[in-house]
Amino acid sequence: MSDTGASPAAMRAAPGIAKTGAAALVVGHCAGLVDLVALPVWVGALIARFGFGPREAGALVTLFLIGAVLASVLTARNFTRLPRKALAVAGFALAAVAFLLAARQSAFLPLAALHLLGGMANGVALSLVHGTMGRSGNPHRLFAIAGVGLGLFGVIYMGAVPPLLAQHGGAALFLSFGAIMTVATLATLLAFPDAGDRSDAPAARGPLAPGVMAVVAGVSLMTFNQAMVFSFVEVIGTARGFAPQAIVGTLIALGVVNFVGPAPLAALLEKRLSPRRVVMAGPVVQAALALALTFATAFAIWAPVAAVFVAVQIFTHTFAFGLLARMDRSGRAAAATPAMLMTGSALGPIVGGMLMESLGIGALGVMAVGIAALSVTCFARGTRAER
């Protein structure tokens, strides 16, 4: 499949990225996708520590994600012409400031404004990280390594932050986010790959390869399903009467599974599995797990399902990322990764909150099945040439 719009130089992926540069990209990936790790703790803290209802809590997280989506779309469109290192550093730094300021607030409106600002800053930085990954010598492998890093980050986060919230209150949530963004600021400042930091060729502004937007839509629908259900994992566990310690233990187990399972497996199976088959199967498995997660009343069933739920998204998206990087070698599609992830994530929490308040927990699982069908349809359309 060819990229019909990219210039020859823009279509050439970077021959390689130094280990320090790759490490900086992995750190930026982990910080920028903090929502994938922290959604249940984030929503749960907004409800339990700040006194917001499910709809308000979902709306705050949605504002962060909407800001990230808008910024990512604009950044991806101009990816080949931007000063990538400078903007990545500035984006993570501004996100850190926004979260540190949020730690001093408790009212909805100030928190809403800071969530939106933090999301926009984060979206710029993360788009530049992902676009740079997409132009590396092996985008699939680098994204898989970043997935391993995200899994390790999840283990550390789930083990450290819930106890801090119990001891120090809701402000600890935003202080933890501020610290994470500060680390990403330093990493990108010191080691962000700066070869070709400014455009090394005229901007690739032509049309994307056929099928790219359909694959993007399929990924976005999968992330919608994940966010809609995963945002309320802690809330669902509490509603089912499971012990708080058991729920936290499940979230830690989830982080361990994400660390040792999907990304390393995706790297090992890169040459053995068809990306088309993986992205077609991913939404189906995700929907089945969503049904089990929302309808199970026994902890022995609920906990294992919750522990592997996110792994499906990580595994599938690793193959989707490599597929998109191959379909569009200019880096624009890869740079839009935050937009495609967070469009779904932005709508998921608020839609999930509305469904829970109106129709109950089971409505989340039923909705997930319908969304999965749409996702499979999009992947089928976008990957016809990959047969």
UniProtKB/TrEMBL annotation:
<feature type="transmembrane region" description="Helical">
    <location>
        <begin position="171"/>
        <end position="192"/>
    </location>
</feature>
<dbReference type="InterPro" id="IPR011701">
    <property type="entry name" value="MFS"/>
</dbReference>
<keyword id="KW-0472">Membrane</keyword>
<dbReference type="Pfam" id="PF07690">
    <property type="entry name" value="MFS_1"/>
</dbReference>
<feature type="transmembrane region" description="Helical">
    <location>
        <begin position="361"/>
        <end position="380"/>
    </location>
</feature>
<feature type="transmembrane region" description="Helical">
    <location>
        <begin position="245"/>
        <end position="269"/>
    </location>
</feature>
<feature type="transmembrane region" description="Helical">
    <location>
        <begin position="109"/>
        <end position="130"/>
    </location>
</feature>
<keyword id="KW-0812">Transmembrane</keyword>
<dbReference type="InterPro" id="IPR036259">
    <property type="entry name" value="MFS_trans_sf"/>
</dbReference>
<feature type="transmembrane region" description="Helical">
    <location>
        <begin position="86"/>
        <end position="103"/>
    </location>
</feature>
<dbReference type="InterPro" id="IPR050189">
    <property type="entry name" value="MFS_Efflux_Transporters"/>
</dbReference>
<feature type="transmembrane region" description="Helical">
    <location>
        <begin position="21"/>
        <end position="45"/>
    </location>
</feature>
<protein>
    <submittedName>
        <fullName>MFS transporter</fullName>
    </submittedName>
</protein>
<feature type="transmembrane region" description="Helical">
    <location>
        <begin position="57"/>
        <end position="74"/>
    </location>
</feature>
<feature type="transmembrane region" description="Helical">
    <location>
        <begin position="281"/>
        <end position="302"/>
    </location>
</feature>
<feature type="transmembrane region" description="Helical">
    <location>
        <begin position="142"/>
        <end position="165"/>
    </location>
</feature>
<feature type="transmembrane region" description="Helical">
    <location>
        <begin position="308"/>
        <end position="326"/>
    </location>
</feature>
<keyword id="KW-1133">Transmembrane helix</keyword>
<feature type="transmembrane region" description="Helical">
    <location>
        <begin position="333"/>
        <end position="355"/>
    </location>
</feature>
<keyword id="KW-1003">Cell membrane</keyword>
<feature type="transmembrane region" description="Helical">
    <location>
        <begin position="212"/>
        <end position="233"/>
    </location>
</feature>
